[in-house]
Amino acid sequence: MAATRSHDDAKDNNAAKFARVTRRGASAEAVAGIQDLIRNGQLKAGERLPTERELAEALGLSRPTVREAVQALAAMNILDVRHGTGIFVASLDLATLLAPLWFALELTEPAFDQLYEVRIMLEPYAAQLAAARATDEDLARIQEALQPLCETGLDRESRLSADVTLHRSIIEASHNDLLIGVIASLTVLARKSRELTVELPGREARAVDEHRALVDAIVRKDPEAARQAMQHHLGDVYRGSQEHRDELFSSGD
Q1: Looking at the domain 96-248, which fold is it?
Q2: Pairwise CA distance, residues 208 & 89, whole Å
Q3: How many CB atoms lie within 10 A of CB 58?
């Protein structure tokens, strides 16, 4: 009798497991279905989704399954749930889609090194493109963004913000949307790295000279000089970080 009951319990447990797998499979199917609607243009960025019931009917799935899929896609920044308004397709820019990944990543020593390796690969090329492609409006924004960094007595937070603004204005002047998105997706990590390096000895004065040389090359429309200036700037920051490694990554114990 006990053996029979044990066997029945095992069957019930297996049934529950298979039910969970089936539900998970259906939810994945719903996610893929909604992604297909976005991919083929039936749902566009900024557009409101049909009702939950309409989506369920269109996909041939249950409403709870569609609800799970919407929650998953919202967590991936593909959908934007606005309470009281509805569910919308998000902007779908690369930086937004990758933001959750970088937000969760701690800036460890290896990640710091890898970040600078990536920045030194990408940002000099962005500066090179900016020098070749920047419009008059771009150049005005870049020159305006440089001004705060040249001021003396700027507090730490203002310096950080000004540095981010200048680099972003240069990258956007490359007019390469994919490159802009990839670099922008690193914003959270790059911000953490700037917080570490902004107080390095002598960095503020050198940063002013380096940024001036960089902007001057872009304004002169000299792509090679702009590339070299950005490479020199990022390389100098990284070299300074190596000289003060223990201070930057001390545990505080």
Answers
A1: Four Helix Bundle (Hemerythrin (Met), subunit A) (1.20.120)
A2: 41
A3: 14
